[in-house]
Amino acid sequence: MAGSTTEHAPDYTAILGISDEAARLRALDAYLSTRSYLQGFALSQADVDAFRQLSGPPADPQLFHVARWFRHVTAILGSPPAARPPCGLQATGGGRRAQPTWSPPAGSEPCQLRLYNSLTRRKDVFVPQDGRRVTWYCCGPTVYDASHMGHARSYISFDILRRVLRDYFKFDVFYCMNITDIDDKIIKRARQNFLFERYRETQPQAAQLLEDLRAALQPFSAKLQETVDPDKKQMLERLQHAVAQAAEPLEGALRAGQAGQELDGRVQALLEEAKDVLSDWLDSMHGSEVTDNSIFSELPKFWEAEFHKDMEALNVLPPDVLTRVSEYVPEIVDFVQKIVDNGYGYASNGSVYFDTVKFANTEGHSYGKLVPEAVGDQKALHEGEGDLSVSAERLSEKRSPNDFALWKASKPGEPSWPCPWGKGRPGWHIECSAMAGTLLGASMDIHGGGFDLRFPHHDNELAQSEAYFENDCWVRYFLHTGHLTIAGCKMSKSLKNFITIKDALKKHSARQLRLAFLMHSWKDTLDYSANTMESALQYERLLNEFFLNVKDLLRAPVEVAAQFEKWEDEETELNKSFYKKKAAVHQALCDNIDTRTVLEEMRALVGQCNLYMAARKAARRRPHRVLLESIAHYLTHMLKIFGAIEEESSLGFPIGGAGTSLNLESTVMPYLQVLSEFREGVRRIAREHRVPEVLQLSDALRDDVLPELGVRLEDHEGLPTVVKLVDRDALLREREDKKRVSEAAGAGLAVCWRDDHGRVCTAHGGVSVSSLTKPQCL
To answer: If you compute the radius of gyration of the chain from its CA atoms, what whole number of angstroms results?
Structure first.
């Protein structure tokens, strides 16, 4: 290298491109024979690149120039190439420096979404069949009565899952739900309502009513004697007792010779109390005379409309597609016909049944995928067939007791549609198969329903659908929501032990109900009780106080640049915790959408923020607004995903109801802020001049006047007054609670309550303690 270090560098290009090592060495030796390597000359980058390709000096003694060049380069670089790290070779002296080799970080394995799949009874990795698109069918209600909290349990839970898949995991969810408007329960209830109203219109006299009631009680008493289910027996006994109590005053009035309005009032009272007993009796005698199909359609239309109102009130998203059985009868007939053509169904006396034995014995098919241990449970199978379809005559039409109806021949007093087997109506299970199959095809990603639908409904759905499509994968993931109990007792509409959604919403808001559901696993039993709802209320209060504090902080005027303050150790630690909590939330959502753990992580994050703000307040320093705003927006975002916050709210819970929160808060708060600052100035002057009357008026404004308007003022020594716009009713309850605590503490009684951080606090004779082992609440 007697000349420039880069003079011959281009000649290396062809040499370095030779793949055969022996040929490359010969070419390099020929090239180096034209160059001189003397001590003190710098290496070029081309020399370094060529040197890197060699593991040692050439073994062939004829390659003299390569051997000499190799010794020269080794002397300069200080070690043979094999001993040096691949990214550590750099040109030295006046040569060009090379970029070191870059290696990506090892990272961590991202967690995958797993869902509890009833088909496997384990948490399976969720993999949609078509990219990000998810097809989902959910069993809807049978609309013959008011929607109750059991419905809320299922549809709020599925709404949460749907929102998380769509808005958090960013799947393209196509959600279908059905309305069952043809069913044994609907037929029987519609007939009974029609016959009872017709009977009421005859205006039966007192004596006639009592005579008819005695006749109706005979089959009712027989039914009571035959009932073995303890819950059902207890319900019938309660009904019998209530009817007897309502009949006694009327019998007494007749014996006393009463007449007129007083007697008519007792007649109406007995009619209402004995409606179920009389309706059953009337249906047994005249049910077959009800032939007008409109009677059977009016009832489900009314209750379907009420169901949709309830879902809207609960903030449950409407389905992308809603199907009604009455609108899909032609498709159902075609579906049944193909099952028969495939050899898995048979006609019998105008009805069509599914051949469970033939299906189970066919290779590639399996009956009872979800609950195989329940196959043969005749009680469950009879409940699935319906009260009007389990007579001895109907049961004798089956080849096997386990077979179930695909199509039912209609009897007098039942709606009917024409079909190849005679006039009839769809079976219960077939409706979902036909409607879902029509919309979603031979295989769907998710099928959802309540836990009690697993057998026989969903097992029969799977069998008849796979018989139709001749496959074994009609549903990939079966999700079942857990039961709902009421204060530990089984909830059942048939047992008249249920709470309607409308009644529940009179006591608690839709958000509070949803928070209660979020605090429990969607697949486990949820107990709807005072304790459950109190936990939800406390959680709501904790979050709401945090949001109000952050809003107050953000309202304080500050220059644009001044909001970006230097982070101290407290902000750094809070930010680290924030990101850890976000990671924990993600992990929990991947784990079967575990909202219970998510809410606990969010609660812990709010608690840390509250402690941070309290420490700042104690030091008379304002908290870091940007960091707290970021955390508040994240929590708001998560609550929006769960459906607990309406879309209009930008931060925290809305004030004044959906659609009004932003206008109300943004319009009113500037005026309240001015009022607060004026009051603060008045209080300062009153203290300086020692005018207690003015201080009392200021306190009355805070404690008595503004709470009536839903406004809370919080005075802190040495800091500006905090202004919060909150729910008026909640604020008034809070004021009453504080008064009771103050009065009890003043009387020397021990009381306890929860502070803004969720900690239990107590007071005894004016002394407060931060924790109790056995708190005694007022």
So the answer is: 39
Task: Tell me the residue length of the chain.
Answer: 778
Q: Is the pTM of this model over 0.90?
A: no
pLDDT digits (tens, 9 = 90+) for 135-191: 999 999 999 999 999 999 999 999 999 999 999 999 999 999 999 999 999 999 999
Q: For residues 201 and 112, what is the distance between their CA atoms, to the nearest angstrom?
A: 63
Indicate whether 231 and 325 sit together in one domain: no
The domain boundary residue, chosen from 635, 654, 673: 654
Neighbours of 289 (CB within 10 A): 11
Same domain, yes or no: 691 and 741: yes
Helix (H, G, I), strand (E, B) or coil at 93: coil
Q: How confident is the model at residue 672 (pLDDT cuts 50, 70, 90)?
A: confident
Q: What's the total number of domains in the chain? A: 5
Strand partners, 464: none
Range of the domain at 354: 116-180+320-481
- The DSSP 8-state label assigned to residue 560 in this structure reads T
Look at the block and give the residue holding tokens 């550590």.
88
* CATH number, domain with residue 160: 3.40.50.620
> If we measure between CA atoms, which residue out of 379, 378, 355 comes closest to residue 367?
355
Judge whether 597 and 128 are in contact, CB under 8 Å. Answer: no
Say how far apart CA 19 and CA 91 lie, in whole Å.
24
Element (H, E) at 486: strand 484-486
Distances (CA, A) of 605 to 361, 374, 609, 612, 654: 56, 45, 6, 11, 21
For residue 142, the cross-strand partners are: 180
> Hey, what are 59's tokens?
């073994």
Q: Which candidate, 53, 83, 85, places its Cα nearest to that of 69?
A: 53
Task: Examine residue 673 and state whether it is found in any structural domain, yes or no.
Answer: yes
CA separation for the pair 231, 713 (Å, rounded) = 52
Structure tokens at 578: 């924030």
Dump the DSSP string for 364-421. T--S-SS-GGGTT-HHHHHHHH-GGG-SHHHHTT-SSTT-EEEEEEPPTTS--B--TT
Q: Are 357 and 351 in contact (CB under 8 A)?
A: no
Q: Which residues are 177's β-sheet partners?
A: 138, 322
Nearest to 39 by CA among 90, 76, 80: 76
Side chain identity at residue 676, one-letter code: S
User: Three-state SS for 763?
Assistant: strand
Among residues 425, 460, 481, the one where a domain terminates is: 481
Identify each DSSP E strand in 88-185 by its residue range.
114-117, 122-125, 133-138, 172-179
Contact 733, 739 (CB under 8 A): no
**Hey, what are 205's tokens?**
């006299």
**Same domain? 278 vs 338:** no
Q: How many CB atoms lie within 10 A of CB 655?
A: 23
* H or E element that contains 96: none
Distance CA 285, CA 306 (A): 31
- From the list 661, 662, 605, 601, the residue with the least C-alpha distance to 628 is 605
Amino acid type, 46: A
Question: pLDDT by residue (tens digit) across 590-644?
Answer: 999 999 999 999 999 999 999 999 999 888 888 999 999 999 999 999 999 999 9
Three-class DSSP labels, 569-594: HHHHHHHHHHHHHHHHHHHHHHECCC
314: three-class secondary structure by DSSP: coil
Reference 438, options 176, 677, 721; nearest CA is: 176
| DSSP 8-state secondary structure symbol assigned to residue 355 | -
Alpha helix positions (H), 619-706: 625-641, 661-688, 692-700
Asked if 333 and 347 touch (Cβ cutoff 8 Å), the reply is no
Q: Are residues 248 and 157 in the same domain?
A: no
